[in-house]
Specification:
By secondary structure, the chain is of the alpha/beta class. The chain contains 36 helices and 23 strands. The strands form six sheets. Strands 3-2-1-4-5-6 form a six-stranded mixed β-sheet, with helices on both faces. Strands 7-10-9-8-11-12 form a six-stranded mixed β-sheet. Strands 21-22-18-23 form a four-stranded antiparallel β-sheet. Helix 17 (372-381) packs parallel to helix 22 (470-490), helix 28 (655-664) packs across helix 29 and helix 30 (679-688) crosses helix 31 (697-712). The chain binds a DNA duplex through helix 9, helix 24, helix 26, strand 16 and helix 31.
Length: 874
DNA sequence: CCTTTCACG
DNA sequence: ACGTACGTGAAAGGC
């Protein structure tokens, strides 16, 4: 007989976890499904990974438990279960049943106690037990047979607590977790513990005395006066807390191991339930026919010739691409729709149609696009131009809520309650199985996307209206989409020879460094593998690990720099990493991206970042090296695409701090910028209380770090890391800063309060970002949301400004009939290529346009440079 | 596919 | 007492 393996799941805890980890989803009947979906994913992964012979899901019985007779306020102050979750519990139970898994609950007891009792019985019977929960309390049950898995992040990422792991992490045994809770309490269960004692102190006490009982027996040995006092006055509370935290392992349960046989799931029931819940991706995995969500009947016409009567004054348009790169992948066809008709136009028909060309290029006919930038670029490849774009579903959804948009029509549509489109995955398949469907299915899919845009236009427009974001959408993002499309299609000329020459030199140096490293290590190994490198540095050589990652020793640069004086191998590794990065990401990576026209065509993601910035992909041209000279040379490969032209680059100076000055209305900060002061020096003068002459380079460096921190939503820890000082010192720095810039302090407090009250923060041009975690009881999530509340209006307003400048710049170049082309945007800078004759004009208009695009209460300042390559624009 | 590392603003 | 600075994308290793 094979060895028994029992999996015990904490139903309530996992359902809560699933609910909060996933965005709200609904099926077509309006029932929320996110917790059920998350629970399903957990079950599937756990069953897959653990392959148990026996399984049980334990549930909490009800509101009152035997613990309440000890302490009536046990679990008091908890928020009511949200109704969106409550309605899902019956489905979770059905699901568990369909999976062929037993479930059990017991009056007056919690799921913990059922799990505790069973795991004791099983481990006494020498069976292997795996416990799954989101509640760390259960780790007290870990022993040689029993592993406790606690959800870490998301829904399927579990941290495994074995006695060894607990020892490494806390330095105590599993049962001492109870003592730890007794001392520190547990806010989420309303267990009081001893005031003033947190995790750190609790662990210190336990390492010394072993248990709560022993702490009190040896109470006279404790010298810290305040702590001793707290312990003494709260003795009863400490013992009660320990009692509350103790899981009952002798609960009067009526199930036993024999009842928990796991025979596998009932496929039919599972499929039935998945269909009801519309878990289409899971159905596909089962090879079950996906229930097509009651798609509204629409008549679709595949046309072999575009005629004038088809094309009306206003239509929606979707250009379908085979893959995501609309600059290179083949164009599969165009969908067009209005209130009466929906068409699919195959690419060959579209490409040769003069009628279509005329309509597309007409500024007077309005187009509602699914993704106007991709449509613009793809249509450009057919030798036509797209004009008259009046709506863009992807952009509009992104403006309404930047966390919405994944770029897929089906998904965006769903988030606005429209279910008439299939997902691309359902039509094309995924990964290696991806393929083109039959012509008819393709036509229908493309046409349905166009139709979805048509249907959603009024819905999303109304939302924009309600949010007062019509202007942001129509005046900023929509015109910008076309400009970005133009930039992408234009591309940047790249000199492969330059890249190869640099690459050659790098390879030679890397080979030498590699040899040195092997010699110093005494063996060959893969330097690029953090795992292997960790073994060499921290086990073989015996250096002291400074930081750990989830999987082992950290070998990140900041760690290695601290070890630089310990062993000469370190500096070689750092150099190897630095040069290796240049070689793989930039030399090899960029070389592969040069098209036949000798140019690199990046794509700007306009509906992705949570702050309103752009991002750049395939390749990323927003992170070309500059800080170190060796990397900066890469920029010499980016050159003008015409002979006798030059590169011209202009960047905003300190735009984020200027934005901060404007939105915080801090008088001192505004004054500093009005005077044209060096802002870091000025900050140093205020923080250190010295005159300008007395600011030394260290003070300025510290002030600069503080300024960065302020923009990021400062924390003492973050600043301490960046300046390599203690947290206390960092905290004092921050206090001094905020005391001398009271307007900034006020802004920080106001943005957090604002986010709490409204649920979102906004930028100057009314871009929004929702911050649901701002009210979380989880310290980390809440702190993160608070920093985001401070940072997003700053970073986002800066993004608004440069976007507007791009629109103004494009118009100005057009107006003055210049040949200059805008090529790239790198968050606070714009890069152009230009005929040398236009240089003098650019020196005037580029800074003028960028500085005047929006009037703030501080001046905007732009620096510019030019040269024969991007490298020379410095 | 996830994690780690590192390039940019 | 929490163990991270804000926002990104790409490459490599390893499961």
């Amino acid at each position: 007989m094979t060895k028994k393996k029992i999996v015990l799941l904490d139903g309530n805890s996992l359902a809560y976890r699933a609910f909060f980890a996933l965005p709200l989803l609904t099926n077509d009947k309006g029932i929320h499904t996110n917790a059920v979906y998350g629970f399903t994913m957990m079950l599937e992964t756990i069953l897959d990974n653990e392959k148990p012979t026996h399984v049980l899901v334990a549930w909490d019985a009800g509101k009152t438990t035997f613990r309440h007779s000890t302490f009536t306020e046990y679990k008091g102050g908890r928020q009511k279960t949200p109704p969106e979750l409550s309605e899902q519990f019956p489905y979770i139970r059905k699901l568990i049943e369909a999976f062929g898994i037993e479930q059990y609950e017991l009056d007056l007891y919690e799921a913990d106690d059922i799990i505790g009792t069973l795991s004791r019985e099983c481990s006494e019977a020498k069976a292997e037990v795996v416990i799954i929960s989101g509640d760390k309390d259960l780790t007290q049950l870990a022993n040689e047979q029993t592993t406790v898995c606690i959800t870490r992040k998301g829904i399927t990422d579990l941290e495994k607590y074995t006695p060894q792991h607990i020892e490494e992490k806390y330095g105590i045994e599993p049962l001492q977790i109870i003592d730890m809770k007794g001392l520190m309490g547990d806010a989420s269960d309303n267990i009081p513990g001893v005031p003033g004692i947190g995790e750190k102190t609790a662990l210190k006490l336990l390492k010394e005395y072993g248990s709560v009982e022993n702490v009190y027996q040896s109470i006279d040995q404790i010298t810290a006066k305040k702590m001793k006092e707290n312990l003494v006055t709260n003795k009863e509370q400490a013992f009660m807390s320990k009692e509350l935290a103790t899981i009952e392992v002798h609960a009067p349960i009526e199930v036993s191991l024999a009842d928990l046989d796991f025979a596998g799931r009932n496929e039919e029931e599972v499929i039935q339930l998945y269909k009801e819940l519309q878990f289409n991706s899971l159905l596909e995995k089962l090879d079950a026919p996906v229930e097509v969500q009651h798609l509204e009947e629409i008549e679709i016409q595949t046309v072999d010739e575009v005629t004038a009567d088809m094309l009306t004054d206003t239509m929606s348009i979707h250009v379908e691409i085979d893959g995501d790169n609309y600059l290179s992948a083949s164009i599969l066809g165009i969908g067009l729709s209005n209130e009466t008709n929906t068409y699919f136009v195959p690419t060959n028909v579209a490409a040769s149609s003069a009628v279509l060309k005329e309509w597309l290029e007409d500024h007077a006919t309005l187009k509602y696009a699914s993704d106007s930038k991709s449509a613009y670029a793809a249509i450009a490849r057919l030798g036509m131009e797209l004009n008259g774009t009046d709506f863009d579903l992807m952009l509009a959804a992104y403006i309404v809520n930047p966390s919405f948009s994944t770029g897929e029509v089906a998904e965006i549509a769903r988030s606005f309650g429209y279910h008439g489109v299939k997902s691309d995955e359902a039509v094309f398949g995924k990964g290696a199985k991806r393929s083109l469907p039959a012509a008819e299915q393709l036509a229908e899919h493309v046409a349905r996307k166009a139709h979805a845009v048509w249907e959603l236009y009024p819905v999303v427009s109304k939302q924009l209206e309600e949010n007062e974001q019509q202007e942001l959408f129509h005046e900023l993002e929509l015109p910008l989409a076309k400009i970005l499309g133009k930039m992408e299609v234009t591309g940047v000329k790249t000199d492969l020879d330059v890249l190869q020459t640099i690459g050659q030199q790098l390879s030679e140096r890397l080979a030498l460094i590699e040899k040195d490293i092997y010699e110093m290590a005494g063996e060959k190994f893969n330097i690029n593998s953090p795992k292997q490198l960790g073994v060499i540095l921290f086990e073989k050589i015996g250096l002291t690990p400074i930081k750990k990652t989830k999987t082992g020793y950290s070998t990140a640069a900041d760690v290695l720099e601290k070890l630089e004086n310990e062993h000469e191998i370190i500096q070689h590794i750092l150099l190897y990493r630095q040069l290796g990065k240049l070689n793989s990401t930039y030399i090899d990576g960029l070389s592969k991206e040069i098209h036949e026209d000798g140019k690199i065509h990046t794509r700007f993601q306009q509906a992705l970042t949570q702050t309103g910035r752009l991002s750049s992909i395939n390749p990323n041209l927003q992170n070309i090296p500059i800080r170190l000279e060796e990397g900066r040379k890469i920029r010499a490969a980016f050159i003008p695409s015409e002979p006798e032209w030059i590169m011209f680059a202009a960047d905003y100076s300190q735009i984020e701090l200027r934005v901060l000055a404007h939105i915080s209305q801090d008088e001192k900060l505004i004054e500093a910028f009005k005077q044209g002061a060096d802002i870091h020096t000025k900050t140093a003068m205020d923080v250190f209380g010295v005159s300008e002459e007395d600011v030394d380079s260290n003070m300025r460096r510290a002030a600069k770090a503080v300024n960065f921190g302020i923009v990021y939503g400062i924390s003492d820890y973050g600043l301490s890391q960046s300046l390599n000082i203690t947290r206390k010192e960092a905290g004092e720095f921050i206090d001094t800063y905020l005391a001398s810039f009271p307007g900034v302090k006020q802004y920080m407090d106001d943005s957090i309060a604002d986010a709490k009250q409204k649920g979102y923060v906004t930028t100057l041009l009314n871009r929004r970002r929702y911050l649901p975690d701002i009210t979380s009881s989880n310290f980390n999530l809440r702190s993160f949301a608070e920093r985001t509340a401070m940072n997003t209006p700053i970073q986002g307003t800066a993004a608004d400004i440069i976007k507007k400048a791009m629109i103004d710049m494009d118009a100005r170049l057009e107006k003055e009939q210049l040949q200059t082309r805008m090529l790239l945007q790198v968050h606070d800078e714009l890069i152009f290529e230009a005929p040398v004759e236009e240089l003098e004009r650019l020196k005037e208009i580029v800074p003028e346009v960028m500085e005047q695009t929006l009037q703030l209460d501080v001046p905007l300042k732009v620096d510019w440079n030019h040269g024969k390559s991007w490298y020379e624009t410095k």
